[in-house]
From TrEMBL:
Residues annotated as domain Glycerol-3-phosphate dehydrogenase NAD-dependent C-terminal: 157-297
The protein's name in its UniProt record: Glycerol-3-phosphate dehydrogenase (NAD(P)(+))
Glycerol-3-phosphate dehydrogenase NAD-dependent N-terminal domain segment(s): 41-136
SUPFAM superfamilies for the chain: 6-phosphogluconate dehydrogenase C-terminal domain-like, NAD(P)-binding Rossmann-fold domains
Gene Ontology CC annotations of this record: cytosol
Length: 303
């Protein structure tokens, strides 16, 4: 069985390390940066004989990559997206992007839950979520992880898992801001409870399930992303507390680029800017847009 991993960054390499004990799996990489994979075959050639394709790339790269591989994509191939984001232009989450770009009948899966790449690469145990409508597809993907350090659970709540991945990245920014402001664990724990309430309400609006928010895809991933020193979203939040970003809600500044930064402006647009009843989301909007100072906003939030 051939697995093609598109994206030879930290996550792609970490997933490969997890699966290297699977002797029935032939793993190859493709990356737009050819220097990462010396002598790599052209993408169409790699795609044509792949049984499974892992997309270990940012959300903003999912559509162009899928569009480029569709002409060579075998009907039997299963696509697995590890991206957790929402497109700025279409305002579609990754499940919607897969459904809109891939041919009818093509099998695809969205992965959620806490999957910190550095921990995976170190062989530390992890548990994730795979969501799709066909449980047989889940079983096929879960089987290749059998006997590894990663265990996978099934969810049929595709919308909930996709949105949980988007929102946990945004709220991890807030936990990073708290770190930048010197907040302790007591204050950050309070912040998690407020973030969870906001996530529950927003995902309900987007037709996701409450149990998804309270499970690995929501609360579990929020804790991992919001407290891990390896987390890019937490790190960017910490930077937001230390500087004025001057309207970088699209995450265009490389120093501040992350899935959370890329998503926050889109989520605000989906609510037509009316997020005053979501204290954290509203506060982040002000900080990212440069219309407020992080320390003052967070002080008002907790008092």
């Amino acid at each position: 069985m051939k697995l093609l991993i598109i994206g030879a960054g930290e996550l792609g390499r970490a997933v490969s390390a997890v699966l290297r004990k699977n002797k029935n799996l032939s793993i190859c990489f493709w990356d737009k940066d050819e220097s990462k994979i010396p002598g790599e075959k052209p993408l169409p050639e790699n795609v044509a004989d792949s049984d499974i394709i892992f997309l270990c790339i940012p959300s903003w790269s999912i559509r162009p990559v899928l569009s480029s591989i569709v002409p060579e994509l075998p009907k039997k191939t299963v696509i697995v997206s590890f991206a957790k984001g929402v497109e700025a232009e279409s305002m579609q989450t990754m499940d919607e992007v897969c459904a809109s770009v891939l041919p009818d009948g093509q099998s695809w899966v969205v992965c959620g839950g806490p999957m910190i790449a550095e921990e995976l690469a170190a062989g530390m145990p992890a548990r994730g979520i795979l969501t799709c409508k066909d449980k047989n597809i889940f079983s096929a993907i879960a089987d290749i992880f059998s006997g590894t350090s990663v265990q996978l659970e099934y969810s049929d709540d595709v919308r909930g898992v996709a949105w949980a991945g988007v929102l946990k990245n945004i709220y991890a920014l807030a936990l990073g801001v708290a770190d930048g402001l010197g907040w302790g664990r007591n204050q950050k724990s309070w912040l998690v409870t407020v973030a969870l309430r906001e996530m529950l309400e927003i995902i309900r609006i987007f037709r996701g399930k409450k149990e998804t928010v309270l499970g690995l895809a929501g609360l579990g991933d929020l804790i991992a992303t919001g407290f891990s020193n390896y987390s890019r979203n937490r790190e960017v939040g910490e930077l937001l507390a230390l500087e004025r970003p001057h309207g970088l809600a699209g995450g265009k500044n490389n120093d501040l680029q992350s899935e959370g930064m890329a998503a926050i402006g889109t989520v605000i647009k989906l609510f037509s800017g009316d997020v005053g009843h979501y204290p954290i989301l509203n506060g982040l909007q002000k900080i990212v847009s440069g219309s407020g100072e992080a320390r003052q906003i967070f002080r008002e939030m907790i008092n």
